[in-house]
Fold this protein.
Amino acid sequence: MRHVLSAIVQNVPGVLAHISGMLASRGYNIDSLAVGETEDPNLSRMTFVVVGDDRVLEQVRKQLEKIVTVVRVVDVSSQDYVERDLMLIKVAAGSGPLRTEVRELVDIFRGRIVDVSANNLMIEISGRESKIEAFIERMRPYGIVELVRTGRIAMVRGGSIHESCDESDATEAQSDTPSQTASQA
């Protein structure tokens, strides 16, 4: 099973190396990783995609929470969330009908041509992983010259990640406390 984890970490040198090294040393494979500064310049958000069952997810989460520079870890995939991937792809497309075909496919996939040369088009496209993969497959017959992708990024819908964590903490606390009707029985 695929899990998307978001870790809020202190924005200090060495955090990425420390966290990725810790995960690798324990044999966890990171399918995708994206890191960037948050609205608070002292914090960064690391978005991981890891593959494994719930036991693996819980182990990864516990290991991350032990690291001093990690402020909070959230299993984003357990909530309603939006996920995106960004790709730049350079495709062989000289002038003429081939270039027109590629431009039409870019429009269909809601991408943008960001650079044009005599023999190539550079295209920017973002969306869910399945959309990116489908676009890559459509471009293969034209000749992919170069391709680069970000890791996946994700955010929980609605309030902030802090609010969703507070709500899930409250829900867990409620489920740990026997209800009044159960204690009266």
Observations:
- The chain has six helices and nine strands.
- The mean pLDDT is 86.
- Helices lie at 15-25, 54-66, 97-108, 129-139, 161-176, 180-184.
- Residues 82-149 form a domain with the Alpha-Beta Plaits fold (CATH 3.30.70.1150).
